[in-house]
Amino acid sequence: MRTIDWRGDHIELIDQTRLPGELVTLRIDTVDALVDAITRLAVRGAPALGVAGALGVALAARSGDTEQAARQAETLRTARPTAVNLAWGVDRARARLGEGPDAVLAEALDILDADVRVNRAVGSRGARWLLDALGRPVNVQTHCNAGALACVEWGTALGVVRALHRDGALGHVYLNETRPLLQGARLTAWELAQAGIAHTLVVDSAGPSVVARGMVNAVIVGADRVAANRDVINKVGTYPLALAAARAGIPFVVAAPESTIDPDTPDGSAVTIEVRDPAEMLGTHTPPDTAALNLAFDVTPADLVTAIVTEDRVLTAR
Amino acid sequence: MRTIDWRGDHIELIDQTRLPGELVTLRIDTVDALVDAITRLAVRGAPALGVAGALGVALAARSGDTEQAARQAETLRTARPTAVNLAWGVDRARARLGEGPDAVLAEALDILDADVRVNRAVGSRGARWLLDALGRPVNVQTHCNAGALACVEWGTALGVVRALHRDGALGHVYLNETRPLLQGARLTAWELAQAGIAHTLVVDSAGPSVVARGMVNAVIVGADRVAANRDVINKVGTYPLALAAARAGIPFVVAAPESTIDPDTPDGSAVTIEVRDPAEMLGTHTPPDTAALNLAFDVTPADLVTAIVTEDRVLTAR
């Protein structure tokens, strides 16, 4: 089952807010519904957002009103600010608007199909690189969800994990909860259980301890954007793992498609870090009127990144 | 109001599991009830545990059965393994068992009174050191709760914060949620609100970003144990903040009473890190049968610690 797919005249996607309790799909018929799904993280993950952006423009193009479709594409493009893939997917599909709905859809489906191939390539390349560097078994710490649910299928960071598992080279996976929305505890735990991969959940702040205690020999994460200088922007909590990996002298590996690398972003300081609704962090456990800053992403400086694995290459530290 | 106190023939303590929703006190008449309160974190924090340990032996001594009291003291001593203060408080009171209940109680009350004085001294010394190092305003990142609720009153790390606030030298406080039991979001947020100190909550994994983004110029935490080599054992999530502070070149300051320094612990690797019930991390948000490792503390290597502030001195990096 794919995380996101095209069904003749609409988008179908897994509602990730319902996992792991229920595996429910959403039928998306309009750009407004898609923007809503993106905003509330029913669909999330940089590669999946690229596909969603392109399919959304294909939906918009079906009306035949090119000007309206272009306006809708712009709204869609900015539904979330940090991952470059959403804008990239929208832009690729939007460039075909003048050629009519079928051309736009063909472009979007091309992005969707490519994501599947790209993920497999990232996974195999990353697994090979880790095996060359570390031998077996590879024990991994990861964060958030850079799995099938962040893509069309297979996954980027979890694609590497799946490839290691397939090749009998995987030891154990430690995963962070990923507050406040718990994508690790909810989604990565679910994916790994489905795949029969042995894993243990830790609180986010224990991830660096897992690294320091020698319980893993690599950290593998995805990315929402890679800047031209190779700073990596990913889910908040990535940076502490990179610091811990550097101190422990183990590889910190970023697995992401080439489309995540943005030559127009000079470095991490140029990226808009999404600040989400503080309500995601507040509840009966916090005093009334508590102020919260809900930073969704962080910046890992390039010098802490051992390798960036894409479908085409491995960029190692310079 | 004190976090823990002696009321003629029993211990009274604030039930911290009920905050911030309700301010409820517990009447503790037996060592069993005290062990239960310690285990479920109704009372927690290294200095408060030292006082609780001593008062618990005073409770036990009231029966007049010295042998039974000694056995109960041993149970109490190991209710939680990581903070040295609990064992220290038990041992100090237990040493007086041969002199009768009144002598034990006098020793326990001496520890209780000393904690108040010690906290004030730690706070003032820490504030002075930070002002000398940084000028004003001092903007602080903290973790967990090293406040009045971790002590009898005033606090260690938050004692420094309170002293800075009293002296008009405090800017803003950022505090981590502190999963899984959310002592930051529940207790520190409550204490700071009560004290009228401006503060903002972040998820644990965003703390290092707050440091990296220059939003604070110091990290201040408490400690459950300081080893002879000055490795610091504190609530899990302390180590990532120390890594971030070192990278950012800002002081990482530990505020703790001298009783937290344990000359019998050569370094962090010699400390038993408490592993708590995985159930604290699991729920409807996790798939059935998810394995979780609930590490309660971490080790910050001495070279990352800029200063350890006690009631008597400031130990700076060697």
Largest sheet entry of chain A:
7 strands, mixed
- Count of helical stretches of chain A: 9
Distance between the termini of chain A: 39 Å
CATH superfamily label of the largest domain in chain A: Translation initiation factor eif-2b, domain 2
Radius of gyration of chain A, in Å, reads 19 Å
Main interface pair?
A-B, 50 and 50 residues
Q: Any idea of the CATH class of the largest domain in chain A?
A: Alpha Beta
CATH architecture classification of the largest domain in chain A: 3-Layer(aba) Sandwich
Strand arrangement across the biggest beta sheet of chain A = 6-5-4-7-10-15-16
Counting DSSP E segments of at least 2 residues, the number of strands of chain A comes to: 16
Strand proportion of chain A, as a percent range, falls in 15-25%
Query: Which structural class fits the helix and strand makeup of chain A?
Result: alpha/beta
Low-confidence stretches of chain A: none
Number of domains of chain A: 2
